[in-house]
Structure prediction request, 265 residues.
Amino acid sequence: MHTPRPLQPEGIAFDVPPRRGLKDQLVEAIGSDIITGRYPPGALLPSEGDLLARFSVSRTVLREAITVLSAKGLIDVRQKRGTMVRPNMDWNQLDPSVIRWSGEPGVEWAGGDISDRIDQLVEVRFIVEPAAAALAARRAAPEDIERMRAAYAAMESAGTDVQAFMAADLDFHIACLRASRNAFLLPIAHAIRSAMMTSLQMTASDPHANFQVSLPLHRAILDAVLARDPQAAAQAMNAHLDDIPNRRNGHASAARQAQTLETAK
Prediction:
C-alpha cells in the first residue's frame, strides 16, 4: 500500500502519526505555524500558489486543510482579500489540536503563556465541576458509580507510573461529569479532556504527592458521591481544585531547579 510522503517543508518536523493523510499533515503544519506566531493574528497567509509550492500538495488537499483550519477558528477566508489569521480569542480554544499547539514551548496564547491558559481552565473547572459533583451525588446510576470506582482504583494502583496515574485521574473527572446525567456537561467533558491532560502534566508529575495529596482528595469526592451527599461532593471537589495552584507551583519550582542544575553542568 502506498504511504504518502511526509511533509517536511523548511525543516518542519511533524509530531503526528505517520498514517495521517496529507490533509492532516498540512493542517498540522499551518496550524502550528499560526499558533507559534509564524503567522500572527491579522496577518495574511501566503497565497494559494505559494502554499502549493511550499508543501507540494494538490489544490484539493490545500483547500480541505484550509477548511479545517477555518472550522477551528484560526483563519478567515474571503475572496479577493485572501486568508487572514483571526485574533487569538476567536480560536476554538477547546479544540484538541489548538490545545496541543498552544502547549508548545514559547507559545503565547491570548496575551499570555500556557500558564495563563491553565489558569483559565481551572476557572472553568471551578464553575463546572463542583456543581457536577453535586449532581452526580444525586443522580449517578450504578454504571456511573462503577466508572468512578474503576478510575479511582486505577489511580490507586498506578504506583510510580505517573502517566497511568494521570490517565486514571482524567478518567475519574470525566466519569464524575458523566455521572451528573446532564446532557450539556458531557460535551464540555470531552472538550476539556486535552486541556485537562496538559494541566495534569504540570500538577501530577510527582508520584509521592499524587499518593499523599491527590489520592485522598479524590477519595473524598468518591465517598461523597457514594453517600449521596451533594453538598459534601461539591465541597470535596472544591477542595481538590483548590490544591491545583499548590501542585503547579511545586512543578514550576522543580522545573526551575532542574534548569539551574543543567546550566551549572
